[in-house]
Amino acid sequence: MLFYNLTEKKVYNFPLPVPHDRYYRGFSQAVVHLLNLFNNNQNLLPPLSTFDPVKNPTDPLDDDGCIHRAVLLKVVLSANPTLNPNNYVVIAIFGSYSKMAFYKPGDDAWTSLDIKPSSKNQAWIQARELSDRPASLQQDVIYYKNKFYAVDFFGALWVYGLSVPHPRLYNMVPSHDNQFYHLKYIVQSCGHLLLVGRNCPMLDVETKKLDWYDLKWVETKNLCGQMLFLGDNESLSLSASDYPGCKQNHIYFTDNYLDRYYSGECPGPPDMGVYNLEDGTVEPHYQVTQFKRFLPAPVWIEPTLGIYQMKLHVLYFF
Fold this sequence. Notes:
Strand content: 35-45%
Strand order of the largest sheet: 11-15-14-13-12
Shape: globular
Oligomer: single chain
Largest sheet: 5 strands, mixed
Organism: Aquilegia coerulea
Number of helices: 2
Helix content: under 10%
Radius of gyration: 19 Å
Structural class: mainly beta
Protein name: KIB1-4 beta-propeller domain-containing protein
Pfam families: Beta-prop_KIB1-4
Domain KIB1-4 beta-propeller: 3-276
């Protein structure tokens, strides 16, 4: 298993005790487990078959007859299962239409989250592709102040509180504008919720901050000394001063726009790089051969081993 150290700009190969016959996606495995990469501790979760539904008869197949989007796309935790073995929630985005489901310790199955759209969110309500199937088209989710916040394909913000009696996603902020971005991310940074949209290849990136009073997104180019790390992992915001060699007001991306991988159109990762919010320039953070393909996509990790804090790495799975 390869690790790339951002501060040293070196690649390390660590023989970690993890199985290599599994499909990794963020914090989870497609079988489904929660896995600690460094001690191989695993928490068994309900299987994918308990998702409703995992496979839709209308899902498109690739040349191998596989439905790549009918698995876990992203998994986020409310707490560390090692420290809170009986008090955590797992939220998953899954399936070809990016629905959401959650799991709590002791559950026998995943529970799908119903959607309660706002009357103001006309883009979501009128979307033609949603008229004949249950879908939510969520693209990213984070845990912040005892709630899960998710952003969908249209840029609308959804919220799920852990204490509600009937699990449901509520529309908090409608679609903010008509600007289209291939990928959207939501991240908590210094007490703010940020919405990041980007197109692929990475030539157009937009960052907006949530105005909690007016419940609207406001464009910003100032991360207040922070840097963002976005990809298939849970979105991270870290202080640049804590990581020598890393740059404040920059966004570090891994390539999780993999449609071209599956189609064979792109031989290597086209959208791995560092985006400068101030001037819009992009630079590579890892020089990789154009024939190297990472499937699944690499993820960012910030591991803590005992009392020692390891430097920031990007983790590549082969």
